[in-house]
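Sequence and structure are kept together here, with a separate record for every protein. A complete record is shown below as an example:
=====
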Amino acid sequence: MEELATLGTTVTELRFALDTFYFLISGAFVMWMAAGFAMLEAGLVRSKNTTEILTKNVCLYSIACVMFLLVGYNIMYVDNTEGGWLPSFGSLIGSQAADADHALESDFFFQVVFVATAMSIVSGAVAERMKLWSFLIFAVVLTAVIYPIEGYWTWGGGFLSAAGFVDFAGSGIVHMAGAAAAISGVLLLGARKGKYGANGEVHPIPGSNLPMATLGMFILWMGWFGFNGGSQLLVSDAENASAVAKIFVNTNSAAAFGAVSALLVCKIVWGKADLTMILNGALAGLVAITADPLSPSLLMSGVIGIVAGGVVIFSIVAFDRIKIDDPVGAISVHGVAGFLGLMLVPLSNADANFGAQLYGAAVIFAWVFSASFVVWFILKATVGIRVTEEEEYNGMDASDCGVDAYPEFVSIKSAG
């Protein structure tokens, strides 16, 4: 009996170690998505704004990690009422539960990279005309308060979870929320100079480095395996390991079908293979499958990717027609495809229903949009959120950072 007890303890400890390690590795994959967002956005903005957008991405990730550690994680997960709407407000990450499947710190690490992802979505949509410091102040509020509150409502056991809302890895909680924060800022910020003509013309503003944007997309695609696969939370038994494998395949399929769908739509509509649209098609497939990457069949995940990859192109065009300027298509990729993913969940998940999905999506969007709008409005009325016309014309690298990403020449002083 003593040997059996010792064996049982050893197995329990091994499972704890394996699940903790899987959580940490998944978190590291999602953290690497920060590099993907940085490369994607740097490639899709003009060269004169590249250093500034990279600075935003480095700083927003760091701010997210600081604020979620100090208050955000506690708001989202610690000592909250089951089925409630108002979280407790405390600090730090609490203490380890005696019956936990993994180390508490691994859970925090996995969650903190998600909040950074939500904030990364905002940076691309407001690129090339927003003040750096206003953006960073907003990042503090979103990552410390706005995101953790809506995260509690579902993943923390709040009222949306009790209502039957299903969002496995964050199509709504992370991606649509980030898009809601972005569109509220864009509406107050306005479009880039020269983007739209007086008679409704849309003037394309090409990005500076499509190889870099493509690299960014592939980094995000890779990181998504941690994003969705890690959300299974466990991998130490046959059932969970099989689930993780299916999640990986479904995630990959949705991205691939999304890219092919975008390619075909571009060919049919414009007769060209638009690389930027293909990149966004792959990302839209990833965002849409994130709502539930486990329940769909392998073919159904492809269908989700096909729908998302096609819809995102028409969404990007539609936003341009109503003069909502989004340099990287973030609102369409993460907002529209995120909502689409939520609404497709009941097609393959018997535990989900359209009413609960629509309710959850509406609540998340309404909260994040309205709270973000208030913050943006206060910033606009006080320190301002938009750079001057001269700073926008010269590029934000010069005004905000003082360093050019692509200097035309480098002068080297001789030792003599």
About this structure: DSSP finds 14 helices and no strands in the chain. Confidence is low (pLDDT under 50) at residues 409-416. Residues 2-44 form the longest helix (43 residues). Residues 158 and 237 are 28 Å apart (CA to CA).
